[in-house]
Amino acid sequence: MRLRLPHFVALLTTLLVFTACSGGQRLRYSSAEEAYEKGMVEFKDEDYDTAIKFFRGVFQYGRGNEFAEDAQFRIAESYEKQRRYLLAAAEYNRFAKLYTASQRVPIAEFRRANMYFKSSPMYQLDQSDSRKAIEFYQLFIERYPQHELVATAQEHIVELRGKLAHKKFEAAELYQRRKMYEAAAKTYESLFDKYPETDWADDALYGAVRSYVDYADNSVRAKQDERYQAAVDNYERLTQLFPESNKTKEAQSHYRKAREALDRLRKEEEAADSIAESDSTDNR
User: Region labeled Disordered — which residues (predicted)?
Assistant: First the structure.
């Protein structure tokens, strides 16, 4: 049976309405504009689930229609309002990729990072979202260095890096408590090298001084020299970079112990060398 054009259009409209009715709630619209306007009514009424359904209905008329860009952005905002931050991040990301010419792309990219920032948990937990937030904030700053939100992005990066440093510090402290001194010392050093601008930097250097002294104390004679020296080196970095830190004063006793141990070891080496030289002379 052949359908005339008017009949075909009427049938297509009916199918679109039927599709929107699925999911247990009847959502009626016959155009992209109507779907979007009804979505905005629900959005303003804070019924975000229904709003999202209407906004998605806009795409049944194609991703290129005049309401599609706004609908995509509103979907992301709806998830954000619901605090479903990872879904919001995905929708902001979709917006930035689909509507590259839009003036809202910078905002979408900032908010993508912001969603991961809001998802970032306490420092004790997995920090994957913190790392993603940092990555996306840095990308935003690189792409839009003059944007008014760059300062906010930088502040959030500082906060997130502090959280990552805190987590690493607690890992080092755990190694120290378990008397795993090598792991503790290397973790403290890694913390300082990776997060030198954070509030944990002086704590890390102090921890490295203490752990290297403990590590050397429990090492074989042949390895003690280099490990006490590592304690001394970290103490010197601490005093140079953080002369006013309380950790500098706390580290002094560990530093003195390392210096005294080094002096003793080197005197023992000199004595041993002198004896060896004397024996060699006597045997000639």
Answer: 246-284
